[in-house]
Amino acid sequence: MAANSPDYLSAVNDVIAVCKDAEEGFRGAANAVKDSALKTVFEQYSSQRARFAQQLRTTVTSLGLKAEDSSAVLGSLHRGWIVLKGALTGHSEHQILEETERGEDLSVSRYREALSQQLPTELRSMLEAQYQDVQQAHNKIKQLRDSSSK
Questions:
Q1: For the segment 93-111, what is each residue's pLDDT rounded down to a tens digit?
Q2: What structural domains does the chain harbor?
Q3: Backbone angles phi and psi of 34, in degrees to 5
């Protein structure tokens, strides 16, 4: 990151990275479950996070800054872990939901950290709107996990 970058850029880049990781993680979860309704939920969240990362990159670039995406390896590893865990557990939806909930805990944390920074208005508005959707996704995953059999 450039020496003259604003203090908030690192936190925003962390959000971009966690969105890419979540995109990969949800894609892996979708590939690991058999239930078509759950597969659809995971695919929708994967697409949502890809969209969020792109919106953030575009906004950061419009501010004359460089958005960095350092998540490719972690996201691929997480996706691979979920697929492996699904295979080892007989695609236990409960365990896959537990794993996706852990990932969502990290997403919520990264958004909170970014929102604790002094941000340009446009970026703050975008992060707040995305954070609400991420929090809703977290709650939905938790609800699905709680209602699934172990």
A1: 888 898 889 889 999 999 9
A2: 9-147 (1.20.1260.10)
A3: -100, -30
Return the pLDDT at 57.
95
Among candidates 42, 105, 106, 108, which has minimal Cα distance to 79? Answer: 42
Cβ atoms < 10 Å from Cβ of 131: 19
> Closest by alpha carbon to 28, among 68, 69, 67, 74?
74
pLDDT at 24: 87
Token pair for 74? 């972690």
Q: What DSSP string describes 42-69?
A: HHHHHHHHHHHHHHHHHHHHHTT-----
